């Protein structure tokens, strides 16, 4: 046995267990138990977690960068950006790419495929664009947005070599529903987002196979009592996961509370972080667009649209529990097992249980990160 973390308050799978221990064998969890039984395992390293909370490693299925680096800018930038998120408890990441030409996106998903082949903490790529509605473009270059075509979809799927995990698209675009089916048939999870679709249109997209709502409430029609829109369509669809950016800017805390109540067990807290996460205020690049970050809030330099966030998932957790009032077990689920399930990895990620990946985070009483392990290695 390589590592044992003992005497912790364990929160995993919606359950809180006192005086718990977890034992790692290489990159896998070998044993989970309580009390002093861990002493019989003869581990190489022992970590006393008394007074601390042990949770599964956080999984971010939607983030664009950090540490003054973007996931769009090659392998070195990806490695740099991931360092800041690892320090804040994110042990597995889907790397989100902003809208670009299909030629550029082919190259970028190829880079991510190469990295994922040797780094299990990189779960693959997420294409947020170019198949988005111009009227809900957010921080995407409108000149590069277009409807999906069979050929473009095939090129992107092929270039990713099995590592394209997620694609966000507007289902009302010409060919949108066919593209959903095409991606899903290729094993890609489809998210509805940056869209002008209504309640019925969103339901049609979910019936076609879409199963995520990209950063719910943002870049889509809102909730109206006679036009409930895509958010309530997602809440009414048991197979759909709703992403939430819980940074206090994108979604009001009362609306976050509403989302957790409307779709219990189906909220995935994400960062949507851009390059400024973990860095100072200033001017950054998001794809082809300039972004100015002031007091930690990122907005397009030309215009006032929010342009991603500077959030890390430990902060999303703290806000969920302290400001929104979400139960700790539910908040941890939204950072771990729910995003794992959303991308088809519920069988090996997102829980501290035997046979699962040895990804874990130790937290103090204020939800500060004390230690992080990813694939059995302390990061």
TrEMBL record:
<dbReference type="InterPro" id="IPR011059">
    <property type="entry name" value="Metal-dep_hydrolase_composite"/>
</dbReference>
<feature type="binding site">
    <location>
        <begin position="306"/>
        <end position="308"/>
    </location>
    <ligand>
        <name>substrate</name>
    </ligand>
</feature>
<feature type="binding site">
    <location>
        <position position="139"/>
    </location>
    <ligand>
        <name>substrate</name>
    </ligand>
</feature>
<feature type="binding site">
    <location>
        <position position="226"/>
    </location>
    <ligand>
        <name>substrate</name>
    </ligand>
</feature>
<keyword id="KW-0119">Carbohydrate metabolism</keyword>
<dbReference type="GO" id="GO:0006046">
    <property type="term" value="P:N-acetylglucosamine catabolic process"/>
</dbReference>
<dbReference type="GO" id="GO:0046872">
    <property type="term" value="F:metal ion binding"/>
</dbReference>
<feature type="binding site">
    <location>
        <position position="194"/>
    </location>
    <ligand>
        <name>Zn(2+)</name>
    </ligand>
</feature>
<feature type="binding site">
    <location>
        <begin position="218"/>
        <end position="219"/>
    </location>
    <ligand>
        <name>substrate</name>
    </ligand>
</feature>
<feature type="binding site">
    <location>
        <position position="250"/>
    </location>
    <ligand>
        <name>substrate</name>
    </ligand>
</feature>
<dbReference type="InterPro" id="IPR006680">
    <property type="entry name" value="Amidohydro-rel"/>
</dbReference>
<feature type="domain" description="Amidohydrolase-related">
    <location>
        <begin position="53"/>
        <end position="377"/>
    </location>
</feature>
<protein>
    <submittedName>
        <fullName>N-acetylglucosamine-6-phosphate deacetylase</fullName>
        <ecNumber>3.5.1.25</ecNumber>
    </submittedName>
</protein>
<keyword id="KW-0479">Metal-binding</keyword>
<feature type="binding site">
    <location>
        <position position="215"/>
    </location>
    <ligand>
        <name>Zn(2+)</name>
    </ligand>
</feature>
<keyword id="KW-0378">Hydrolase</keyword>
<dbReference type="InterPro" id="IPR003764">
    <property type="entry name" value="GlcNAc_6-P_deAcase"/>
</dbReference>
<feature type="active site" description="Proton donor/acceptor">
    <location>
        <position position="272"/>
    </location>
</feature>
<comment type="similarity">
    <text>Belongs to the metallo-dependent hydrolases superfamily. NagA family.</text>
</comment>
<dbReference type="GO" id="GO:0008448">
    <property type="term" value="F:N-acetylglucosamine-6-phosphate deacetylase activity"/>
</dbReference>
<feature type="binding site">
    <location>
        <position position="128"/>
    </location>
    <ligand>
        <name>Zn(2+)</name>
    </ligand>
</feature>
<dbReference type="InterPro" id="IPR032466">
    <property type="entry name" value="Metal_Hydrolase"/>
</dbReference>
<dbReference type="Pfam" id="PF01979">
    <property type="entry name" value="Amidohydro_1"/>
</dbReference>
């Amino acid at each position: 046995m390589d590592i044992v973390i003992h005497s912790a308050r364990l929160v995993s799978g919606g359950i809180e267990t006192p005086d718990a221990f977890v034992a790692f064998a290489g990159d896998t969890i070998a044993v989970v138990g309580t009390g002093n039984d861990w002493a019989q395992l003869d581990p190489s390293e022992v970590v006393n977690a008394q007074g601390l909370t042990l949770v599964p490693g956080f999984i971010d299925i939607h983030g664009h960068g950090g540490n003054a680096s973007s996931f769009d800018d090659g392998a070195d930038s990806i490695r740099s950006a991931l360092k800041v998120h690892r320090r804040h408890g994110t042990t597995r990441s889907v790397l989100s790419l902003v809208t670009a030409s299909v030629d550029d996106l082919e190259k970028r998903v190829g880079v991510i495929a190469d990295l994922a082949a040797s780094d299990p903490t990189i779960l693959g790529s997420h294409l947020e664009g170019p198949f988005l509605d111009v009227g809900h473009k957010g921080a995407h270059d409108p000149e590069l947005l277009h409807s999906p075509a069979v050929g473009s979809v095939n090129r992107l799927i092929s270039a990713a070599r099995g590592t394209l995990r997620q694609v966000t698209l507007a289902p009302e675009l010409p060919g949108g529903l066919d593209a959903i089916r095409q991606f899903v048939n290729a094993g890609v999870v489809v998210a509805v987002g940056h869209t002008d679709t209504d309640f019925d249109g969103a339901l049609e997209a979910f019936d076609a196979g879409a199963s995520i709502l990209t950063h719910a409430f943002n870049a889509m029609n809102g909730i109206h009592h006679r036009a409930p829109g895509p958010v309530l369509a997602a809440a009414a669809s048991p197979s759909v996961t709703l992403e939430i950016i819980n940074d206090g800017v994108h979604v009001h805390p009362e609306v976050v509370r509403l989302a957790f109540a409307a779709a219990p067990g189906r909220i995935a807290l994400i960062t949507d972080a851009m390059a400024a996460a973990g860095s100072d205020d200033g001017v950054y690049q998001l794809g082809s667009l300039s972004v100015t970050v002031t007091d930690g809030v990122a907005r397009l330099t030309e215009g006032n649209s929010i342009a991603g966030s500077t959030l890390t998932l430990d902060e999303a957790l703290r806000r969920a529990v302290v400001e929104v009032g979400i139960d700790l077990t539910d908040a941890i689920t939204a950072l771990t097992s729910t995003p794992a399930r959303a991308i088809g990895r519920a069988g090996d990620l997102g829980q501290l249980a035997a046979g699962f990946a040895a990804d874990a985070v130790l937290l103090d009483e204020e939800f500060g990160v004390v230690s992080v392990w990813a694939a059995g290695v302390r990061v």
